[in-house]
Amino acid sequence: MTVAADERLPHYASPAPFDPYAVEAMTPEQERYFMASQWRMMWWKLRRHRLAVISGALLLFMYLVAAFCDFLAPYGLQTRNTDFIFAPPQRIHLWHRGEFVGPFTYGFDYRLDMRNLKRVYTENTERIYPVRFFCRGESYRLLGLFETDRHLICPGEGGTLFLLGTDRLGRDLLSRILYGAQISLTIGLLGVAVSFILGMVIGGIAGYYGGWTDVIVQRAIEVIQSFPQIPLWMALAAILPVTWSPLLVYFGITIILALIHWTDLARAVRSKLLSLREEDFCTAAVLMGASPARVIGRHLLPSFMSHLIASATLAIPGMILGETALSFLGLGLRPPITSWGVLLNEAQNINVVALYPWLMLPVVPVILVVLAFNFLGDGLRDAADPYR
C-alpha cells in the first residue's frame, strides 16, 4: 500500500554540522539530580517510602518521650498509692451531667469481692477532680541536669490519674512504662554500638587479610552461632553476680547481648571486604603506603556504610527483644531497675493476667518499637542503593 506524498509525515534534519562534544543543556531538575551526592539521593528515595518515614517519626517520638519521661509521667517511678492496689485504668471525662467541665476524672470507690478475692472499683460521679497541666509535683532532675518539679500532667487535688491502671503495689503503670522506655530503648542503642564495633573490626580483619585469619574468624563465628540463643542468654546472664548494683547489671546485659549479635555483621563486613580489596582504589592506597587500618577504615568501610546503617537499624529490635526476654524470665534486669521486660515479668501469673489484664500493656510499646525499627530498616535498605 502506497502513501500519497501529501499524507507523509514532515521530517526535519538540522543543517548544522555535527559536534560530538556538544552537551545538551540540562534542566534545573536534571542538574539537581545528576549533581546530587549519594547521601542526598538516599534521602530522596527514603522519603518516598512512606511507611519508613512514619516509623522514623514514631521512633523519634519514642526516644523524646524516654528522654523527658520525668516531665511527662504523672507520678514518680516508685510512688505508691496503697489505697489503689490493682486499680483499673481511669477514663478522662469532659462533660458532667450535660455541662462542659474540661478534662477531669471521677473518684474511685472500691469493695472487696470475697468470691474472686479482688478489689472491685467503681466510679463515684459525685467526686470530680479536674486534671492539672504544667503543674507542680514530685521533684526530679530534668535530663540529669536541672532540678525541677514541673510535670506535663498531674491528678486533681485529692484525686487520682491512673490512665493505664496500677500494679500490685499501687504504682501507676503509665509512669512506669515511660520510665522503662529509658532502659529498653537505650539498651538497644548501646548493644548495637558495641556489636557494631566488634563486627566491623573482626569482620574487617578477616575480609582484608583472608587466609588463616579468615578461617579462624569464620570458625569462631560458626561456634558462637551454633549455640541455642535463649539457653546461651540464660547461661551468660546467670554469671552476673547478684551483688552487682543495678547500673552494673544494666551494662552487663548490654555487653552480653552485644557479644551474641556481632557475628552476622562481621560476616557481612567480611564478604564485602573480600570483594572490595581487589578494586583499583584499594590497590592504589596500598601502593601509596597506606596502613591496613587506614585502608579498611578510610577506603573500604565507607564504600558500603549505607548497608551497615541499614543492618544496624535492623539489629536494634533484636537487642530490645533480647533484653525483654531475659528480664521476663527473671535473668536480666531486676528491680529497682524498671524496663518493659521487668514490667512484663510481673504479669507471668495467668491468674493475675485474667483478673488484671492491663498489666500486659507494656507489651504494646515493645511491639510498636520493634515494628517501627523493622519498617525503617526496610526503607533504609532500599534507599542504600539509590541507583536501583
Query: How much strand content do the residues show?
Result: 5-15%
Please give the order of strands in the largest beta sheet.
Answer: 1-2-3
The chain-level structural class is: alpha+beta
CATH homologous superfamily assignment of the largest domain: MetI-like
What does the largest sheet look like? 3 strands, antiparallel
Q: Give the domain tally.
A: 2
Q: What is the tally of helical segments?
A: 14
Indicate the radius of gyration in whole angstroms: 30 Å
CATH class of the largest domain: Mainly Alpha
| Straight-line distance between termini | 45 Å
**SSE pattern, N- to C-terminal:** HHHHEEEEEHHHHHHHHHH
- Quaternary form: single chain
Record keyword descriptors for this entry.
388 residues, alpha+beta, MetI-like fold, 2 domains, 3-stranded antiparallel β-sheet, two-stranded antiparallel ribbon, 14 helices, 13% strand
